[in-house]
Amino acid sequence: MELKWTWLVIALAVIVVVWLVVWFFPTPFRRSPRNAVLVAHAQRLRGIPRFRVLARRRELEMLARVFAVLFLIGGSILLAGRLTSVKTHQEEVRNRDIMLCLDVSGSMVDYDEELAREFSKIVEGLNGERIGLTIWSGVAVTVFPLTDDYDFVVEQLDLAAEKFASYDYNYSAGTYIGDDKGSLISDGLVSCVDRFDRPDQERGRAVVLASDNDPQGKPVFTLPESSDYAAENDVVVYGLGTREMSYRESAVQEFEAAAENTGGTFQLMGSDGSTGSIVEGINDLETARSKEPPRVTVIDRPALGAGLTSAGVLLVVIAGVRRRA
Amino acid sequence: MTAHLTRVKARMSIHAHRKVRGLLEGEYASMHTGRSMDFTDLREYVRGDDVKDIDWKASARSRALLVKRYAAARKHTILLVASTGRSMAAMNDLDVPKRDLAVMVSGVIGYLAVRHGDRVALAYGDATQTHQMPPASGELNLERRLSAIHDNTAPTSPASDLTGLLQYVARTVRRRTIMVVISDEYTIDTGLAAVLRRLAVQHEVLFVSIGDLDPTSIPSTGNVVDIDSGNVVPEWARYDETLRREYAALLTGQATSMRRELDSLGIVHETVHDDGSAIRAVLRLLERHRHAGRR
């Protein structure tokens, strides 16, 4: 709440105060009225009971009028000063894009189900982020692109979890094109990175990459290459490995290096509340701020002034009615 | 110069010519027994009486020596005691200040006295000061005294204090006078009663009250200010019928108790309510004084 024309309020308030001072302090500004009829012993009037009754009545009436005038003046000053409140609209643009990038090779299906269910829960708490789901093995397939239609996302994630649980290979059809290639993590990552749209916008981009890093066949990109490509596109990779990977030291190290290269993390699933830390990481992902300045809206607040003025008018009318009566 | 007295004379001749003439001819009752052409009564001779005064024929008839007594043709002193506090500068009605009425009353009495050959003295004052002008005869001296009353009564004067003024008179005036008190008192409090009782022993006291303007009956707009307190009489108090009635009742009550008080002191009293009845009131006062029991 602030006044738009503070100087006007100050000027008016000073005028009113000066007027009140002149009004209330009889000397030296006010002398006894000129041309007055002088009467002696008129003080006798004041002792008469009827006088006191009249005086009391008058006092109430005057009190109402004084308040009426004060309300009117105060309300008018407030209205004149334009009481406004400033609202800064800086909508927190939570424009992160998260791509779930799941390896659907046979060894990963159990984990995929778990991950899908977990994300289905997470999505419910999101606001503004976009989620996409890409599955890959030899080839990457978009299940659904980045979207903030959460109902749809939840529906799709639940469906995916269900399909994974029932080993429905129809669901992952298209990821395996019969060239004996499978679980190509580097190609999968590049495909996922390519699925981020709006490259010109500053958005936080993350890929949750779940894989056992056990590529079959020769990929187009090596893992470091794909990791560099992700980094180049400002995509953070959160890697999730399987428990079984712990037996393959080199695979873990490779995966971890690829993730950390992009500023992400790598974890083995199920080792310690896996998805929880992924969520934390995603939350930490810096939200890209939109470049537009915060919108400042100045809203007039005439309610107080108008209320005071109305009360004043009402009192004036009431006092007038009383006087009539 | 002689504005005040001229006005008084004019008013007297218009209003009450016959009555005034009667008064002038009849003069007022002498207080003194002394030498003059006017025989009053006889009394027994006591040693020291002038032998010339022995009424031989009467003595022969009554077998005792009788001497004639005469009403003294001595000049009387009329002492005007005028309160000149600021309350006397207030209005009696919308046109006439009480001061003018006080001057009129003093002028009528003073003129009668001057025409009678008596001398007129003046004592006037308010809460802070008291003054005296010695007895003097002649219209010019009377005019000066009237001017003193007129000029010393102003709205800026100190408050009225009749008790103080009368105490001053009791202290300073030694001679026996016919004393005319002109004030606007509306009650006789104990202090005033005491000093009046004291003065009534020494003087013939006549008491003239000047009435006030009733603030509840002022028809015009404009401010009405109480001269003593400086308070404005609120406008709403001036139009209320009930208040007017109650105020009138209060005034009547006060006037009655004042009259009773003064009667008990043996002081002749008259209230001058307005300009029109002023002279009549004064003449009524003098008439009553003439017929009052002599002491």
Tell me what you see in this structure.
- The complex is a heterodimer of chains A (325) and B (295).
- With 325 residues, chain A is α/β, with parallel strands linked by helices.
- Chain A has nine helices and ten strands.
- Helices cover 46% and strands 18% of the residues of chain A.
- Chain A has a six-stranded mixed sheet, sandwiched between helices. Chain A has a three-stranded antiparallel sheet with strand order 1-3-10.
- In chain A, strand 5 and strand 6 form a beta hairpin.
- The longest helix of chain A has 33 residues.
- The longest helix of chain B has 25 residues.
- With 295 residues, chain B is α/β, with parallel strands linked by helices.
- About 2% of the residues of chain B have low confidence.
- In chain B, strand 3, helix 4 and strand 4 form a beta-alpha-beta unit.
- Chain B is built from nine helices and nine strands.
- The interface between A and B is medium-sized, with 21 and 40 residues.
- Strand 2 of chain A pairs parallel with strand 8 of chain B.
Question: What are the salient characteristics of this protein?
Answer:
heterodimer, A: 325 residues, alpha/beta, Rossmann fold, 2 domains, 6-stranded mixed beta sheet, 3-stranded antiparallel beta sheet, rod-shaped, B: 295 residues, two-stranded antiparallel ribbon, 42% helix, elongated
Low-pLDDT residue spans of chain B? 29-33
CATH superfamily of the largest domain in chain B: von Willebrand factor, type A domain
**Under CATH, the topology of the largest domain in chain B is which?**
Rossmann fold
What class, by secondary structure content of chain A?
A: alpha/beta
* Element-by-element helix/strand order of chain A: EHEHEEHEEHHEHEHEHEH
DSSP strand tally of chain B: 9
CATH class of the largest domain in chain B: Alpha Beta
β-sheet strand percentage of chain B: 15-25%
Multimeric organization: heterodimer
Biggest interchain interface, per-side counts: A-B, 21 and 40 residues
CATH class of the largest domain in chain A: Alpha Beta
Which value, in Å, is the CA radius of gyration of chain B?
22 Å
Integer average pLDDT of chain A: 80
Question: What portion of residues of chain A belong to β-strands?
Answer: 15-25%
Query: Within the largest sheet of chain B, what's the order of strands?
Result: 5-4-3-6-7-9
Proportion of helical residues of chain B: 40-55%
Helix content of chain A: 40-55%
